[in-house]
Structure formats: C-alpha cells, structure tokens
Amino acid sequence: MLHFIDSSESEDDLDELPRHLPPVIRRLAPLRHATSQYNLRSTGSTSSDSSTASENDKCSDFSSLKSRRASCIELNKEDEFKVMAADKLLMAMENMKHATSSQAIRWRTTSTESLPGIIKSNRRHSKGPLELIQGLMAKKAAVGRPAKFKNLGVVGPPTLISSTVSLHEISGFTHNPTSGHQNEQTHQKTNGSAVHNQLTRNIMNEVLTKVGPYPQIVLPSNGFWMDGVNQQHHMDDQVNNMNVNSCARFKLETDETSHCYRRHFFGREHHDFFANDPIVGPLVLSVRTEVISSCDHFRIILRTRKGTIHEIVSATALADRPSASRMAKLLCEEITTEQFSPVAFPGGSELIVQYDEHVLTNTYKFGVIYQKGGQTTEEQLFGNPHGSPAFDEFLSMIGDSVQLNGFQKYRGGLDTAHNQTGHQSVFSEFKNREIMFHVSTMLPYTIGDAQQLQRKRHIGNDIVAIIFQEANTPFAPDMIASNFLHAYVVVQPIDALTDRVRYRVSVAARDDVPFFGPTLPTPSIFKRGQDFRNFLLTKLINAENAAYKSSKFAKLAERTRSSLLDGLHATLRERAEFYATPLLESTSSGGESAATTSSSSNSYGGGILSSVKKAFIGRSRSVSQEASHVPHRAATINVTSRPKKSISSTSSSTSARTHSPIRDEEVVKPYRKEWEISSQESPDNEHDSDTGMESMSSTEMSGQTRASSCTFCVDDFHVAANHQSSDAKRLETLCVDVTRLQNEKHDLLRQNVSCKTDIKKLKDRQSVLSEELERANDEISRLRRMLKKPSNSDMAPVHQHFERSYSDVSV
Amino acid sequence: MREFKVVVLGSGGVGKSALTVQFVSSTFIEKYDPTIEDFYRKEIEVDGQPSVLEILDTAGTEQFSSMRDLYIKNGQGFVVVYSITSQQTFHDIRNMKEQIVRVKGSENVPILLVGNKCDLSHQRQVRSEEGLALAESWSCPFTECSAKNNQNVNVTFAEIVREMNYVQNKSRQSKSCCSLM
C-alpha cells in the first residue's frame, strides 16, 4: 500500500491515519517504511520465532541510521532467501545433479565469500527453512553447509530478485507451483515491476484528483526515503521566507583513504610490505615514520579484501618492537601471520598507488528528466518531445549547452562522432570534475516507441537523476524502472522566467543509500544563481558517491577490490622473487643482508645487524640491544649507511676507495659504544681486547702502510709494547678527540634533519587544522540553522536526535 | 558435464537481458529495466553433448571499467551484442575485441558477434553486411537474432558453445605439436 505526506494533514488525521507522518519528524519516514516493509514480509516468513523477535527489535529500534541500514540489508537477504527456499522446493531433484560439480561450487563459493558479514550472520537465522529442505531430501549430498545449499539453489542471481518483492508476488509462486523456476523468476521480475507501477499510478492519480498544491514526491510503501517535504504552511511563506546560502560553503563528501598513499607516502621515505594471511587473505602494508607534535608516530595503511585502513599510531603504542606484523595487527586484530615481505624493488610504489586509486573518478553523468503537470508514468516522462522555456532557463544555470559532434571532454556515453544521440547536450565543469548531463528532451525522440529506448538507455543507466517539474505535480521514485537509478533530486520552479524565479527542491533515494549532504534548508527553496548551482552540483556528486555504498554497488565494489588486491599481491610476490635472485648471485654479503632483512620483522634492525656482522661478528648481541633501545636513531643510521653500500656494490673500481671510509666509520661508532658498555661493566679481559682494537684503529688513522697494520695485528707482543710508549698514548688521545668531533658532527646533522622534518610536519598540521576549522564553521552554521527551525515541543527530542544522526553520517 | 562461463557484453538497451532471459526461460521481457549484473545458469545440449552455461549478463554503461576487466578475466566465452536499430550500439562495440584480447592476453578467445532486434526491419540502421564484415575482421562467428520472436536465440548460445569447444581443441592441438617438437 502506497501513501504520501499530504499537505492538508493535521494532528487529528495523525491519530486516525498513523501512516501519515507529522512534518516535524519527516526524516522518520524511511525508518517507518523499513518497519512496514519488515512487517509485510514477516507474515510469509518461515523463520523461527526467536529470529523474528530479534529482527523485530532491530526494526523497532530507531536509535541510529546504521541500525536502519543493517535492517534493510537483513530484510533484503530475508527476501532473497524466501525466494531461494521456494526455488529449492521446486528444483530439488534437478539441483542434485549439480552437487558433484566442484568447479561450479568453487566458482560460486568465491562469490559467496564476498558477501558482507551481516548477511552471513543472517544466514544462520534461516536454519528453519534449511531443516525443512533437509527433511525433503533423502540423499546424503543434501546435507551440507548453508553456503553449499546457497550454491546449489541459486540458478539465477540474487540481483534478479527485486528488493521490494511484496507478499502479492510471493503468492504468485504459490499459484504456479508446477511452473519451471526460471520461467517463474522471469515472470516475477516483469510482474513485480508492473504491479508496483500500477499501484504508484493509482495513488498519484488519486492525489491529482484533489485540489492542489501537490507534494513534490509521493513515496511508494517501501524501498525509498525522501527529504525536503513541503507543506501548505511553507507555501504561504514562500515569498517572504527566502533562504539564501551565500555564506555557506558546500562540501563534497569524498573518501580520503584513496588519496593517502600518494599524499603521504609516494615519493617519500617509507616502507611497503606484502603478506598472505590464512584468515584475512592478501595484505599490503605501508609504514612511514613521522614526528607529530614533537613525538614519534607511525603512519600506517593496511589494505585487505574488506577495505583499506589508514591510521596514525604513536610510536609508544608499539614500544620498542615496531614490527610490520604488529603494526598490521593494530589495524586488524584478525591477522595471524608474522611473515611480511618488504617491497624492495623498483616500481612497487607505482603498483600500490594504482591499486589505491582505482575507485577514484573525476567524471560524472547525471540524468535530467522533464516532467509536465499530471504525468504519472515513465512513458509520459520520456515521451515529452520538447522541454519548455522554464526548463531551458534551468538548464542554462546548471551547465553549458555544447555541440556533441567533435566534443573532446567527458561524453558520458554519448555519441560525439555521428550525431546518433542528439546534436547537443548540457555539460559542466565543477571543482575539477567533469559532468555530462543526459537531458531527456535533448536525446533522440523516436515516434511510435512507447519506452523511448534511445533516451532511457542513457538516463536509465545513470545512478542519479534530476526531475524537473514544469508545474506543481507529484513524482514517485519507482515510476522509472531501473536497477541503476538510486537517487533523485526533484526541482520545481516558482515564478519561472521572472526576476523572482526560485526553485523548490526535494530529494528521494533508495533505502540503502546513506544520507548525503549538503542538507536541505527549511523551506527548501533556492534563488536561481551561482549559489544554487553550487548546492545542486554538490548534492548530485555526493548522491552518486553515497549510492555506491548501497548494497548492490557495494557488493560489486568489494568483489572488484578483492580481485585487484589478489592481483597486486601476486605481482608484488613475483617481482620480489625476480629481483631477489640477481642480488644473491652478485654478492654474498648482499645476499646475507637481504636474507637478514627478509627474515627479520624489523627492517631497521636488519640493516644494523648486517652492518655489525661485517665489523664485529662476536658483538652482534650488544649492538642489537642498543638498536632496539633507540629505534629512531637506528633508522637514521641505517638510512645514512645504505646509499654508500649501494655505491660500493655497483662499482668494482671505486669499491676499494669508497669501502675504506665506510669501514672506518663503522669501526669507529660501534667501537665507541662498546667502550661505553664495557666501562660500565669493567671486565678485565674485555678491557684488554678493546685496547687491542683501539691500537688497530689508531694505526689506520695514522696512515701507516697496510703491511705494518697486518704486522701489528698478528704480533700481540708488538701491539702491547707499542701501547706502552708515549707516542701511543698521544695517538690515543687524538683518536678520542677525532671520534668525539665526528660524533658531534653527526649529531648536528641529525638535529638539522629532525628540525626540517618538524617544520614540514607543522605545516601539514596547520593545513589539517585549517580544514578542521572549516568543518567546524560549517557545523556551527548548520546548528545555527537548526536553532532557527520551528519545532513542536513534544517532538523536539526525537527531531534533535535524528538531526544528530544525520550529522554523524554526513561527517 | 562440462561447464562454460559466458559473458554477455554490449552497449545499453541492445537487448542483452532480453536475449539471455529468452534463452534461459523462453520468455520475452518487454519492459526495459537497465541491468547492473545478473547471473543465470542453464543446461544445453550441443551436437549431442550436454553442457552447463553460466551466463553473466552485464551492465551496458562504461562506468565500471575495473569490473568489466574482471568479467573478461573470469569469462571463457563472450557474446557481444549490438542492436541493428541503432548505429551507435554498433560503433560502441568496435573496441570490444581489442579489450578482450588485452585482458585475456591471447588472440584465441571464443567470441560471438550478435545483431539483435532483427524483427524491427523497418527501423534497421545496421546492414547485415556491416555486421558480417566486423565479424570477419574479428575472425569470429556472426548471427542476427530477435529476442522478441525467439528467432536464432538458441542457435546463438549453441554457437558460442561450439566456439569455446573449438578454441579449446585448437589449444590442445597446439600443445601436442609442441610436445612433438
């Protein structure tokens, strides 16, 4: 049963007709519809009582928008299952033949895995029907996991089953039990659309028999929510209560996660890892060290099949063990693997940024449909051969009229070579985005075609459409049959073609489309001009982005994302294996370094360990402890020494020269640290050993010949004797001084780098704070508008509550 | 029983869903309801050999390029549909073969070119010769059909099965030649 919000309703009517909603809680409408939808379905449900009670509680809970969304998803799933249950009863024997097909099961199991978790949990509630089916099937193969039943039972896809299948259509199954399933399913699809369309038409015709003014939107009994309802009260105020939003700034609601890698990691110092977890699946991790507010932090991006997570974690959260697996677990607790491989080959960053940005688009296409007064069917809407001067006035505001032949920018599927889709269209560029409009009256008109296929094949494949109403007349969002169209912005002119032209705006969308901004003011009437254009284009773009979160598109997006992540992981692994072999073959030390790095979960520690092994094999434990104690300093040292090694490894002729200073540097630093440690412990044996090393270092620094050095190393007596001499003592002193000066130099260099990094981070923080300030200002202006709204004292708490809910969603 | 994954591609409004539903359930859908993605399954016997077709009916819009690549990657045979009543739908599919070959990484891909709505002869915009010429350039079979009148519909799907069998056999022979060498 369809109903609408009548402009003439009053509180007395509310008591008699609970389906009519008072204006102050108009946003409650979609939630009520959800409940109604569930009640209708529960009548024919075969679920257990506990399941029914549980879902009923969810439906009756209006505490949050998320609950409504979950409820809608569950309802859809419930409905799918009922049809599948009927299908199983009819096709039981035929499906048995498919049980042995492992390939089919694998194919559909993959599809099943991509279902959202909430649907999986819902499947457990459907045990009753499964038990019924098991009772009917005597063969052993009938017994299996619910997923397997789903695979066996699905001959057609869930998307064939309309999300608003009504009890009437369920009855249709009962009346034709002997019909083939596929025939029944197809018949249902066609019949369902016709039934709903007829009901909507009846309601709208009934509305039109009354005296105006008419509501802009008439909602069907289920499946859609709407915003911006006007009543007679506001009609009286329309002349005096103009709402000009010249001070407001409309915000595009975009997902920032897709931009994070290019913005913070790409081209900068960072580390990427890949792994394959037995539970979560392929993983790609990016880590970067940043100093924020004078404290060390890790910026982490973790990509899984379920989605991408971006967080900034304080270094203290990971203590002194910042391993890749621990960082990943911070963002996703279900991860169990410890094996993370570094992305240490050229081109890895390009592959990762390409994956992250696969969802981004700067092109949009929106339908624009012209509706005359009294038109109640899509055939009438698409059958309007021409528009009107008022419509042209509106079109000239939202974009520019362009010649399609030879058009070079985004064409949105229109023909730019042969004039097959009309000669002109309306195009707009807005905030670095290109928008092509599919205007119904500018697409080809075919005489004798009731459906006007040449028009609907473009507009019907849009996700968002504008309905321009030439006169005061109702529009119902289910008038147009399309799996694609998910949101409508309905625009109705007031005093068109005059200096006082204004537009009344309402919005309707499918139940599973989340709320999208900017919020419609009350009354939702706009003056023609740049401000209204900005509002409208922002609303359209946000509508499309919101529609992508509805169940149909979200399912497709998740499957696409999973497949692309599998591909990215496979490519990274192949390249890692490809580049690993030459390194191992070229130098043994290089191979050792690579092995150390890959086996260690801490890439910084790996570098240090490799350096230490080269100089002092026997003292690796001590240095490792120190590296753990000061991870940030270790990272710096590691980075400093790495380029020199690269130079050394790539050029054999320069290796002798460049290797010597590297060795000196490495010898000096660990030596000093070791000296400090041994001083604390004061072991006599170790002291003697350090003395020997000191002597060797001193010899090298003095520039004596290599042969002499070898002689000193071999002959312990001579070393000891040399130590006793006065010259040795003086050299020792000079050596200590040189070492101290070098350390001071390195410290100063590190401080310089650190200061520069801090300056950069402060600038970034400043821009972030500016953005937050802007959002806060938007919030303040929105709250100020809320305070100005007239509200019924009895309904105020509920009203405010829903305002907060929508605010949370949009933020 | 052998299974084949068939993907139906083409511009919006050419009759991909009508063609598929006519084949699967012998009914014609008059109402145009743009498809996002539908999945069907049906048994068919071709040349005395039974097979199961898993048919993926796709969206006609180019909005999801990543998703289309995924369809092509996972599909085995491709039915490329245009409408003889719309020159643009014929132009829209000109690059389809190139895209399929790029994603598959092979020239040997089972493709069938289909011109639908041949019952609307009075509205014809694409001559049969044009369709045949494109099919020859693609080295693939060509047929015209009418989902409305159930004309050549079963033949269409039988032909894509033959094409998939043919390509598989051809691939097997190539491997045999390699082993001989």
UniProtKB/TrEMBL annotation, chain A:
Protein name, UniProt field: Rap-GAP domain-containing protein
Transmembrane intervals: none
Keyword Phosphoprotein: yes
Coiled-coil region(s): 731-786
Low complexity bias locations: 42-54, 646-659, 692-702
Biological process, per Gene Ontology: regulation of small GTPase mediated signal transduction
Bias type Basic and acidic residues, positions: 661-676, 800-811
GO terms of molecular function: GTPase activator activity
Cross-referenced PANTHER family: RAP GTPASE ACTIVATING PROTEIN 1, ISOFORM H, RAP GTPASE-ACTIVATING PROTEIN
Keyword Calcium in record: no
GO cellular component terms listed in the entry, alphabetical order: cytoplasm
Start and end residues of each Rap-GAP domain: 352-568
Domain of life: Eukaryota
UniProt keyword annotations, A-Z: Coiled coil, GTPase activation, Phosphoprotein
TrEMBL record, chain B:
Keywords in alphabetical order: Endosome, GTP-binding, Hydrolase, Lipoprotein, Membrane, Methylation, Nucleotide-binding, Palmitate, Prenylation
SMART domains for the chain: RAB, RAN, RAS, RHO
Residues forming coiled coils: none
Family: Belongs to the small GTPase superfamily. Ras family.
Catalyzed reactions: GTP + H2O = GDP + phosphate + H(+)
Membrane topology, from the record: Lipid-anchor
Species classification: Eukaryota, Metazoa, Ecdysozoa, Nematoda, Chromadorea
Primary location: membrane
EC class: hydrolase
EC number(s) given by UniProt: 3.6.5.2
A Pfam cross-reference name: Ras
GO cellular component, as recorded: plasma membrane; recycling endosome membrane
Listed GO biological process terms: collagen and cuticulin-based cuticle development; epidermis development; negative regulation of cell migration; Rap protein signal transduction
Record has Thylakoid as a keyword: no
GO molecular-function terms, A-Z: G protein activity; GDP binding; GTP binding; GTPase activity
Name listed for the protein in its UniProt record: small monomeric GTPase
